Amino acid sequence: MPEPTGVIHDIGYQRYTGPRLGRRQVFGALYGHGLRTAFGLGRSAKAKIFPWLIVAIVVVVAAGATAVRTQIGEVVLTYAQFADAMSWLVIFFVAVVAPELVSRDLRSGVLPLYFSRPLPRSDYPLAKLAALVTALWLLLGAPQLLMFIGAAFTTGKGWRGAWDELLDLLPGLLYAGLWAVVFASIGLLVASLTGKRAFAAGGVVAVFLMTTPIVGTLQVMPSQTVNELALLGSPSTMVQAIGGWALGDLLVTENGGASYQIGGFGPLYAVAAVLLVAGAVALLLARYRKVASA
Questions:
Q1: What is the Cα–Cα distance from 186 to 159, expressed in whole angstroms?
Q2: Would you call 257 helix, strand, or coil by DSSP?
Q3: Are 262 and 228 in contact (CB under 8 A)?
Q4: Which of 37, 155, 231, 267 is the most buried (most CB within 10 A)?
């Protein structure tokens, strides 16, 4: 009988004896990675081109509005109006970023690795959603802060002028948050339905842009009630209607502004937005429960 020739070599492997991180740290890691992914940080130069191009555009618009206001002494774009004006860019930002956050993982098949850890199935989509909401809020809110800094110290009214500007800024930031929550929840849900990023991006754009003709059709109907409820037909116009109802004059300047004819249906629009976001998040969670059990 031949002698065994196998040899076990000690190559230094040791049992891990350090602290084991829990659910909060795992969620935070997913959130941080998602936020970095949204702006292409830690990735190739190609991945940074689109998000930072969008950032450059919104910053240039904010700087231009601030410069014009400094020269003529009049508000040409309020903080809330800035969010409205940049909403079309937000659509394309979501269309590119949402598939990067979720579609890539679906296609590469790494989700079983995530769920093999003590990670609740809901934490993965919620972390990705929180990252996308934060990215969108920063995209719309950071330029508003730039506008505030430029306006607060050029009004010539001292601290009183800065305080008045702050009171105008805060509703604008809240309005930016509304855009972020609505667009992120819908966009991430659509992107989670496919592992192909091109299809996901097209689906996101279709949901936001192809619903706009519905609004136009309803607004030409002979019924005034239908006209006032027409803006419910699209997520974008729904958010704008809520902004017009809740913020009022902050969306209208002396040079003119958007006008939203929704009658007394403002509270209904707010409830509809809450239900839309809640429904999108519920479907997103259900989607990942299905993925985890597959």
A1: 41
A2: strand
A3: yes
A4: 231
